[in-house]
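README: folding subset

This subset contains proteins for which both the sequence and a predicted structure token string are available. Records are stored as plain text. Below is the entry for Alpha-1,4 glucan phosphorylase (871 residues), shown exactly as it appears on disk.
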Amino acid sequence: IETKIPVQSRELWNKHKVQKFNTSEEFEEKFISHVEWTLARSLYNCDDLAAYQATSQSVRDNLVIDWNKTQQRQTVRGGKRVYYLSLEFLMGRALDNALINMRTDTSAQDVGKTDQVLTKGNTSREMIRQAMKDLGFKLEDILEQEPDAALGNGGLGRLAACFVDSLATGNFPAWGYGLRYQYGIFAQKIINGYQVETPDYWLNFSNPWEIERAEIQVPINFYGYVDRTNGEQSTLAPSDWIGGERVLAMAHDMPIPGFKTSTVNNLRLWNAKPTTEFDFSKFNSGDYKNSVEQQQRAESITAVLYPNDNFEQGKELRLKQQYFWCAASLHDIVRRFKKNGRPWSEFPDAIAIQLNDTHPTLAIVELQRILVDLEKLDWHLAWDIVIKTFAYTNHTVMQEALEKWPVGLLGHLLPRHLEIIFDINWFFLQNVEKKFPHDMELLSRVSIIEDASSDRQVRMAFLAIIGSHKVNGVAELHSDLIKTTIFQDFVKIYGANKFTNVTNGITPRRWLKQANPKLAQLISETINDPNDDYLLDMSKLTELSKYAEDAGFQKKWNDVKQFNKLRLADLIKRLNGGVDVIDREHIRNTLFDIQVKRIHEYKRQQLNIFGVIHRYLEMKEMLQSGGSIEEVANRYPRKVSIFGGKSAPGYYMAKLIIKLVNSVAEVVNNDAEIQDLLKVYFIPDYNVSKAEIITPASDLSEHISTAGTEASGTSNMKFVMNGGLIIGTVDGANVEITREIGEDNIFLFGNLSENVDELRYNHQFHNPELPKPLKRVLDTVESGAFSPQNHHEFKPLTDSIKYHGDYYLVSDDFESYIATQDLVDEVYHKNKKEWLKKSILSVANVGFFSSDRCIEEYAETIWNAEPVKPE
Ligand code: CR1
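--- output ---
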């Protein structure tokens, strides 16, 4: 590798080579020097926050050493690099994860000899817990100081976070590229039962996990015009884009440690800042203040994450974010490639770029622009390189989430890119015309430019398909659906091989080892895997099947669950102002029924809460008709129904669902007659770190989307990995979960996706009668039982089912849902052994859903990339 240090000086460099800390003593020394030098504090004013900062800085120092070595190794070996472009990375906290993943240079046996505290394959974490204790701190309290890096909305962003973990663990030379938003997803407060958004200024206390790369600043242009005064008329020829506004993209790097490997990869996040250039001609002296203000505007580009999940708003600033990020990332990728001096034709052998949904589709256009306008490649040679480089993952079939940008807006912001898009479209339509002559309908259906008479729009998904060599969905059902619905015509044009499936996965390091240390310990003891190798090879979990019916093992298994339920009960008490919601005495016989995810009509939290209301009404009716509380408890045994999740700030119906849950909680939780047999609680501000407490505590979790609407879901996998059972529809990855763990171990209900169209049609034209139990629920809601001040409060919710076509088919699935909930009660309360057996078998067979498997599939079938392993 190149260096400017003369040969005779290198010895000195090597003599003073930095070292990782390997023992607790070395860690303590580091910690204290960071307290003193980095934080300018001391023994006398080091609080938990300072201790968190100093610990993180120390751990980061270790990671940086491996980070540097990893980058050098990857450069020297020159394998294919993978770039994962995602507008969202929902990372959560970094410290605990780093402690689990981090390697020190001392092997377990060496440390053992010097009497260090060591347990089961978790060297650095246990070592640091002890060292922190010796220094006067409690590791758990220190970890709590870290704010979540919440740079994402939901599943799509968390998937990207799991992927970077698995990429590093699998030793792939892979970087993530994203934006460094100053404000992540808003913090959710619940006031009078309603969601209120407050800003998440997560960088408040500075972020020890980021390395500011002040030297990496990429100029990014917007607006302006295209110049072809060199006599060229064709838009296919190299053209000059004279930008009208310029900002700088500055890199911030986050080290991503792999598990049980010294590979540390990079997550590069871009921050927008003003340029230091100054256009004197535009400003006379009097305009000085205005010109500074205009420069200041640059920062707004990366100020805030758009808080929508599965919904696109079409705002100009969002398009600016997308281009800013694509242009900066591609500039960086191309610069790195050019250092090798390889010919352009080898670009796709050196680089694979994965597009996480259509948000980075402009990267396709930007690469074409770089190759044609700046590198002067022939249009068609360039386009061939582009297609071979990119691949696109689709994450949704929901119409309102499919990105389209008005031609006018795109052309104003990015005039040259619009020309290129038109040319891409022209060549594409030529080919279609050749293959299917005179099929005008087809041409207009597949055109990148949607030609609605009033405003023309650029269809980003079509552009992404045309500019990629592979397109994948995120679960089998979803990948089949995109081929038969939204992308049907493209299957006809390209053939089915361009379309493939990679079922989503989750990282077992965070979602099992970190979130559920008790279960992880029980597993490693039981399958005799003291070094936690199962976290890399999840097929080892099948060993657990042997003990599925073993009474002694079942007891241990159940004890872990009870521990985790108590942990959640504590969290809920804290969030509830110190007042307990859950009766701890009966916690062993209380079914924890949890639905946590973004609030969305398609995810059907309304179905869940209507089910709760139904249960409550049934209980009340039994009592009123003379039943005893014992009889009620026998029919409707103890249950706590837990909700959590954020609504998009502008999503009225979702916000109303939150209010309904809280209003029902108010009534049910205060009804002395039912004696704590039913409780309802909405956990405010659901996020990654709360998910780590919530997920291990579920007995049952709900994944009940209208069939065909949830592309995959990933929390379903997390709950199963933690021994929770699922009630769910035949949708997304529920289908493969059923296949893997066995249909006896999951509670499926509801209509199938192939019947959805017919059912919707039926609602539209025949207005079918509501099932009786649902009618009673809706009548009760409309009577004001949960909104005594305002009987009409929830009318939009009941109306959408009664009068507006029940688009999400709540009425069609309601009876099947409550019947299945009865079955759940039956097994949980009358046959606990059976329940525990199901729980154990679920975990035993969950291995397929490790994101490591997922990344291997991408590497093999889409990227053609290989690991670069440390020696
Ligand atoms: C889907 O709704 C899926 C994640 C990750 C979401 C969810 O079912 O698990 O993606 N889609 O693949 C999305 O955010 C924009 O689309």
